[in-house]
């Protein structure tokens, strides 16, 4: 991305002021994208235990969307060697995080994030929250039994209130995530 940003800077310097407004906006957007790729890359690196460059490739694909990114664009924008980009792309494809498409009459591959991987990620998130919810239900039931068979202290009552509120949160989160998953799957099927 740095190379594109520097090319835009050169264009802006050499254009009359009335013609460089759009280029200034584009340069600003590209700089924001560069910073966001770095931040998202660090997040993905930690969350998914990805190598730094692999995380930045995924971040680039997320921010680029359905139009895809070519191999050459990744090399130019991420400032890594062809062999390193190739190694990480192959690994990301092998793990199902990244896929590609081609365009008629164009020999290039356009890499995009895998829709299947996102669905699997959402399923895993729902599964984890559901498991956590079941555990909290057991804790509430246990604490309720203790409360029913003894003098309930304010501490036990407050603790029960927390668990009940947390269960409500988990139920809402699970329901919302299922809606997102359903909408995403329907949208992907319509493309």
UniProtKB/TrEMBL annotation:
<keyword id="KW-0238">DNA-binding</keyword>
<dbReference type="InterPro" id="IPR036388">
    <property type="entry name" value="WH-like_DNA-bd_sf"/>
</dbReference>
<keyword id="KW-0805">Transcription regulation</keyword>
<dbReference type="GO" id="GO:0003700">
    <property type="term" value="F:DNA-binding transcription factor activity"/>
</dbReference>
<dbReference type="InterPro" id="IPR011991">
    <property type="entry name" value="ArsR-like_HTH"/>
</dbReference>
<keyword id="KW-0804">Transcription</keyword>
<dbReference type="Pfam" id="PF01022">
    <property type="entry name" value="HTH_5"/>
</dbReference>
<dbReference type="InterPro" id="IPR052362">
    <property type="entry name" value="HTH-GbsR_regulator"/>
</dbReference>
<dbReference type="InterPro" id="IPR036390">
    <property type="entry name" value="WH_DNA-bd_sf"/>
</dbReference>
<feature type="domain" description="HTH arsR-type">
    <location>
        <begin position="70"/>
        <end position="96"/>
    </location>
</feature>
<dbReference type="GO" id="GO:0003677">
    <property type="term" value="F:DNA binding"/>
</dbReference>
<protein>
    <submittedName>
        <fullName>DNA-binding transcriptional regulator GbsR, MarR family</fullName>
    </submittedName>
</protein>
<dbReference type="InterPro" id="IPR001845">
    <property type="entry name" value="HTH_ArsR_DNA-bd_dom"/>
</dbReference>
């Amino acid at each position: 991305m740095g190379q594109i940003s520097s090319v835009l800077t050169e264009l802006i310097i050499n254009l009359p002021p009335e013609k460089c407004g759009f280029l200034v906006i584009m340069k600003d957007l590209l700089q924001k994208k560069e910073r966001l790729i770095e931040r998202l890359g660090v997040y993905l690196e930690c969350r998914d235990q990805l190598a730094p460059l692999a995380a930045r490739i995924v971040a680039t694909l997320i921010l680029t969307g359905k139009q895809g990114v070519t191999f050459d664009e990744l090399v130019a924008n991420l400032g890594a060697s062809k062999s390193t980009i190739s190694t990480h792309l192959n690994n990301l494809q092998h793990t199902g995080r990244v896929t590609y498409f081609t365009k008629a009459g164009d020999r290039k591959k356009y890499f995009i994030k895998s829709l299947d991987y996102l669905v699997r990620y959402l399923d895993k998130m729902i599964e984890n929250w559901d498991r956590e919810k079941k555990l909290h239900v057991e804790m509430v039931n246990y604490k309720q039994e203790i409360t029913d068979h003894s003098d309930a202290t304010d501490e036990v009552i407050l603790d029960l209130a927390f668990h009940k509120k947390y269960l409500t949160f988990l139920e809402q989160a699970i329901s919302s995530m299922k809606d997102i998953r359903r909408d995403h799957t329907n949208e992907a099927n319509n493309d």
